[in-house]
Design a protein that fits this description.
membrane, NAD, single chain, NADH_UbQ_OxRdtase_chain2, globular, about 350 residues, ND/Mrp_TM, 2 domains, 14 helices, NADH-ubiquinone oxidoreductase chain 2
Length: about 350
């Protein structure tokens, strides 16, 4: 993907600059401008290989992001009309409708429920590196802007909106992946489910949401990096991945880690959110999140068992060789990092 130097790194720099501008700004006009700069830098990366599926995904992504930007600028204009300032900290002048429109615009850009329909279809036609950027870096600006909403305004309407979006995202992430056989669409629904957990974590503490986001990004980098390194960009089905035996098993274990199977690393982030929110008033929402995570874990386990049975027929366990390279070491850390964290926590508690 990065063979056309220096243009690919130029687009990455533009995309990163737009995200940093949006996060570091306190005016809605500069926040909107930063999101648009990020979109301008990301769109050329989507159509880099000039395939039909990438062009279709890029057009869908552009339409959705333009819709989210229109909601964002419309909500900021409504706040400007009431307060005569672009400052995002002027919450006393915010109208209810303007607040709802702003949250809707950021939710559309992020892919939260009920604006999640575009994410699986867009990710299904993209290469692995573009999927990685869409699942990780493109979440930073909208997610941290939503976190600023909660830090500056603790109104019941905003809390109810976050509870609805988090519960719906978790259920959609569980139901949507049940009948999926495409790896990209499966990871897209997994991303929607994790967004629900992040939105719910933001209701209780900022650091828990950030820790959850960092763990999700770490596992996603290993997952998409492994799929990209296995040279399976044209293969859609999980059973057709052409890779080494250790890489196949690590990919499946990373899927289980994304699903939150204990004691893997993905379980630690969910355990953290459950611990933080266990004393809160939203226990029913937490129960819905756990149910959605169990549904996600169900289809991950189904994929793992079907893959393992087909794998055991083809290979003998005696003849397995472990290819120790950089990706394998990173995958091992991501898979078994949860075991180390649990052992350390138990040791300190004793």
């Amino acid at each position: 993907m990065f063979s056309g130097l220096p243009f690919s790194y130029l687009f990455l720099s533009v995309m990163g600059t737009g995200t940093l501008l949006s996060i570091s700004s306190i005016h809605w006009l500069s926040i909107w401008a930063g999101l648009e700069i990020n979109l301008i830098g990301f769109l050329p990366l989507l159509v880099y290989q000039k395939s039909t599926s990438e062009s279709e995904s890029a057009v869908k992504y552009f339409i959705v992001q333009a819709l989210g930007s229109s909601f964002l600028i419309f909500g900021s204009l409504m706040t400007f009309a009431s307060s005569f300032t672009w400052d995002m900290y002027s919450w006393s002048y915010f109208s209810t409708l303007g607040l709802v429109v702003l949250v809707m615009g950021l939710s559309i850009k992020l892919g939260l429920f009920p604006f999640h329909y575009w994410l699986p279809s867009v990710m299904a036609g993209l290469p692995w590196i573009s999927c990685l950027l869409l699942a990780t870096w493109q979440k930073f600006a909208p997610l941290f802007l939503l976190l600023c909403f909660l830090e500056l305004n603790q109104s019941y309407m905003l809390i109810y909106m976050f509870c609805l979006m988090s519960a719906g995202s978790s259920l959609i992430g569980g139901f949507g992946g049940m009948n999926q056989t495409q790896v990209r669409a499966l990871l897209a629904y997994s991303s929607i489910g994790h967004l629900g957990w992040m939105a719910f974590a933001a209701l209780h503490s900022e650091w828990s949401m950030k820790v959850y986001l960092m763990i999700y990004i770490l596992i996603s980098i290993s997952m998409f990096g492994s799929l990209w390194a296995s040279d399976s960009g044209l293969m859609k089905n999980i059973n057709n991945l052409k890779t080494s035996t250790f890489m196949q098993m690590s990919i499946m274990l990373l899927l289980l880690s994304l699903g939150g199977l204990p004691p893997l690393l993905g379980f630690i982030s969910k355990l953290l959110v459950i611990t933080v929110s266990s004393n809160g008033p939203w226990m029913f929402i937490l129960l819905v999140l756990i149910v959605g995570s169990l549904m996600s874990l169900f289809y991950y386990l189904s994929l793992f068992f079907s893959f393992f049975l087909a794998f055991s027929k083809k290979y003998s366990l005696v003849n397995l060789t472990m290819n120790l390279n950089i990706i394998s070491v990173i995958n091992t850390i991501n898979i078994f990092g949860g075991v180390l964290i649990l052992m350390m926590s138990l040791t300190t508690s004793m």
